[in-house]
Specification:
- Belongs to the heat shock protein 90 family.
- This is Molecular chaperone HtpG.
- Pfam families: HATPase_c_3, HSP90.
- The chain contains 20 helices and 22 strands.
């Protein structure tokens, strides 16, 4: 038998397209060919179970070998095999997939969807690294003759009688000069570890050296000897393919360590995904310790299709905020283009996205309700993730409102609803606004916090990287007429203004004189002096930054689309308590002594905010010593 012909294609010059554009990463040739071999192996097993093949299935194994001298890579299987006619049909007619006919023939089988042929364009990825490819195959069919196919990367092929004597297929790649990096054991092992780690049929790549017990030495200590054993790449039955009832906590943790052998931390908890309608999806998602590092955590979810690794770029499958999770998603219903490397727009993708979001929200709510104390203890590790989700996904936010926690300076935790109830009758201003006071730096803002607590108010701690945005979220979604004000953004009586009227004891002339005194003492254009009518026991001077302006500038720093505000210089308000005895004393002192006292009070206010540094701090210390 000898035949020559042309490959049936519907696009001219398809091989240059395959080599340069179709596959963005040429190492995936091995993924395609190995997964083809796995499919062929699964097909023979399926045919046997359906009574369509009565022979001995035997031990199904896919072998990957290379010969550096001959410059070849060979992928062998003992699966279904192909006749010469099938090779012409499935290999030569690129636009036709072998799966179509196979599925039609066995569509009565309940799980026929599990069998998908990968012949066609996937096979032609071989030409990214090879200038000639051979197929040697023997079909499972009774009386079948071995067939040999060869192609040099043009549209011409040749079929002749093959040499294979047992059922299955060998694909031999004659590696081109530009791809000789693949004729390397370490390189091939690395690619197989990446793409074939969880394939459902054993993948063997040569042998490896290991040790086994070899009796005892003269001191009775165990001895070991080195032996060569088959080097199997994969775990054919990973945790996500099993039922949750089959797995213990240790099984889930062991699988996490298998996925991330370099990780030093164990996950906090996990979700086992398993749905078969209206799409098929399995997987396990782990909640890691986020540690306030949004970027470092990304791209840790691996996408598989029938246990074949596809990508860890899952942003189209998984909502943006869920990319902080780790784990595996496996779905045959995720549409991929012919290179299997990029997702196509499809309704299933949106459904899967929504399903995963709902499952994650349900799991968090379940943990919160069943073990609130444990949930609160984990909040520092998962709070950033939950807040990110609330800011970026409205459906997640609807559920998260029930388990998102707010913590105050006493380390007490409240849900959004609980906190609203806690402060709504106390921290209400004269206009009926409910004011949430918060601190972004408890140590630096301690003076302001102490003043607020002395008035019976509560202060939240919002010091995370997303908390500038969360303040706006709480104002919009937290409840009616809520305002958030940082505890150091003004004097406390201005932050929560009541109906009570405090009269200023200074005359208009004294107020002007005090303003001039402070302006001359401070001598800074970024400090705006205002005389305030406050209680006599409040601080004499406070330095604050307007809440709105400060929030806009903070958002600009965290990429919140407020870049304009980031370029505006800081402008502070210097609140002088006109009813404080110190102010009267300044006015009654001489010009020089008055300015000295004013400067000292101002520097104390700066010091309490951590704004007094360098030469100004040195001068303050020297002046303080002189005044003692």
């Amino acid at each position: 038998m000898q035949e020559k012909g042309s490959i049936s294609i519907h696009t001219e010059n398809i091989f240059p397209v395959i080599k340069k554009f179709l596959y963005s990463d040429n190492e995936i040739f091995l993924r395609e060919l190995v997964s083809n071999a796995v499919d062929a192996s699964q097909k023979i097993k399926r045919l046997s179970s359906l009574g369509q093949f009565n022979g001995e299935v035997g031990e199904l194994v896919v072998d990957v070998k290379f010969d550096e001298a001959a410059k070849t890579i060979t992928i062998s299987d003992n699966g279904i095999g192909m006749t010469a006619e099938e090779i012409k049909k499935y290999i030569n007619q690129i636009a036709f997939s072998g799966a179509t006919e196979f599925m039609e023939k066995f569509k009565e089988a309940n799980d026929a969807n599990e069998i998908i042929g990968r012949f066609g364009l996937g096979f032609y990825s071989a030409f990214m690294v090879a200038d000639r490819v051979e197929i040697d195959s023997l079909s499972y069919q009774d009386g079948a003759e071995p067939a040999h196919w060869t192609c040099d990367g043009s549209t011409s092929y040749e079929i002749s009688e093959g040499t294979r004597t047992t059922r299955g297929t060998d694909v031999i790649l004659h590696v081109n000069a530009d791809s000789e990096e693949f004729l390397n054991k370490f390189k091939l092992q690395q690619i197989l570890d990446k793409y074939a780690k969880f394939l459902p049929v054993p993948i063997r790549f040569g042998t490896k050296t290991t040790s086994e017990p070899d009796g005892e030495d003269e001191e009775g200590k165990p001895k070991y000897k080195s032996i060569e054993v088959d080097n199997f790449i994969n775990n054919t039955n990973p945790a996500w393919t099993k039922s949750p009832s089959e797995l213990t906590d240790e099984d889930y943790l062991a699988f996490y360590r298998e996925l991330y052998p370099q990780s030093m931390d164990e996950p906090l908890f996990w979700i086992h995904l398993n749905v078969d309608y209206p799409f098929n999806l399995t997987g396990i998602l782990y909640f890691p310790k986020i540690k306030n590092e949004l970027e470092i955590q990304r791209n840790k979810i691996k996408l598989y299709s029938r246990q074949v690794f596809i990508t860890d770029e899952v942003k189209d499958i998984v909502p943006e905020f869920l990319m902080l999770l780790h784990g595996v998603i496996d779905s045959p219903d995720i549409p991929l283009n012919v290179s299997r490397s990029f997702l196509q727009a499809d309704g299933n993708v949106k459904k899967i996205n929504n399903y995963i979001t709902k499952k994650v929200a349900d799991k968090l709510q379940e943990i919160f309700k069943s073990d609130r104390k444990g949930f609160e203890e984990k909040w520092k590790d998962i709070g950033l993730f939950i807040k990110y989700g609330m800011l970026s996904d409205e459906k997640f936010a609807e559920k998260a409102n029930e388990f998102c926690l707010l913590e105050n300076t006493n380390k007490e935790s409240y849900t959004l609803k609980e906190y609203y109830e806690k402060v709504k009758d106390i921290q209400v201003d004269k206009d009926g606004n409910i004011v949430y006071l918060y601190s972004s730096d408890v140590a630096q803002q301690d003076g302001f916090i102490t003043t607020a607590i002395a008035k019976g108010y509560d202060v939240l701690v919002l010091d995370g990287p997303l908390d500038t945005h969360i303040t706006s979220y709480l104002e919009q979604k937290g409840g009616e007429k809520i305002q958030l004000k940082r505890v150091d953004s003004d004097v406390i009586d201005k932050l929560i203004q009541k109906d009570e009227k405090i009269e200023l004891i200074l005359t208009e002339e004294e107020s002007k004189k005090a303003t001039d005194l402070f302006q001359k003492a401070i001598n800074r254009t970024d400090m705006n002096v205002q005389i305030e009518a406050l209680k006599a026991d409040e601080l004499p001077v406070s330095v604050t930054l307007d809440e709105f302006m400060r929030r806009m500038k903070d958002m600009a720093k965290t990429g919140g689309g407020m870049g304009f505000y980031g370029n505006i210089p800081d402008n502070y308000k210097v609140s002088v308590n006109g009813n404080h005895p110190l102010v009267k004393r300044m006015l009654e002192s001489g010009e020089e002594e008055g300015q000295k006292l004013a400067k000292q009070a101002f520097d104390l206010a700066l010091l309490s905010r951590g704004l007094l540094t360098g030469a100004d701090l040195t001068s303050f210390v020297k002046r303080s010593v002189e005044m003692i």
